[in-house]
């Protein structure tokens, strides 16, 4: 039987990424193969964190990228996909309008997710399978707009918290002092 293909689109503060993976429906080991990985450094966080919105030029670039991703999803005959947007889109005043425009132009649905869901997705993306399930871990994911810290104990995600501290925010001095206080607490 032919391999089934699935896609993930990550609209982050630094880059927009498309990942297409495949799996055989008869594979009891759930072995995924990477079919395609594309990363476009749009830097949406620069707009969102500094100006509070994504300007028209970046909006048009994002729309063009999403149109290209839609074509690639068709070319690769993808069975299903999920598109998620994180910190830059969470905080942009015009994110809902951008998501609506992309849906109208490409028929791609984008979920703007919070930091907690972002941490869960990272955990569930199989990195935990490489950990010793008899130990405890603190996993830190530093993104452009946020940092998620997760506590993993005996193979289970126990707790995660998201901070509005990321590389793009740091670069543009856009981290609120209260957020540093939250982190230190």
Instruction: Estimate what percentage of residues fall within beta strands.
Output: 25-35%
Stretches where pLDDT is under 50 for at least 5 consecutive residues are none
Tell me the number of strands: 8
Number of helices: 7
The largest sheet, given as strand count, sense and whether it forms a barrel, is: 5 strands, mixed
Widest sheet: strand ordering: 3-2-1-4-5
Helical content stands at: 25-40%
Gross geometry = flat
Q: Report the mean per-residue pLDDT as an integer.
A: 91
Looking at this protein, list some descriptive labels.
three-stranded antiparallel sheet, 185 residues, alpha/beta, five-stranded mixed sheet, single chain
Can you give me a brief rundown of this structure?
This protein has 185 residues and is α/β, with parallel strands linked by helices. The chain has helices at 44-51, 56-75, 87-91, 95-106, 115-124, 167-171, 177-184, and strands at 4-11, 16-23, 33-40, 80-85, 110-112, 136-142, 147-153, 156-163.
Characterization of this structure:
The chain has 185 residues and is of the alpha/beta class. 37% of the residues lie in helices and 30% in strands. It has helices at residues 44-51, 56-75, 87-91, 95-106, 115-124, 167-171, 177-184; strands spanning 4-11, 16-23, 33-40, 80-85, 110-112, 136-142, 147-153, 156-163. The strands form two sheets. The chain has a five-stranded mixed sheet with strand order 3-2-1-4-5. The protein has a three-stranded antiparallel sheet with strand order 6-7-8, sandwiched between helices. A hairpin with a 4-residue loop joins β1 (4-11) and β2 (16-23). α2 (56-75) packs parallel to α4 (95-106). The mean pLDDT is 91.
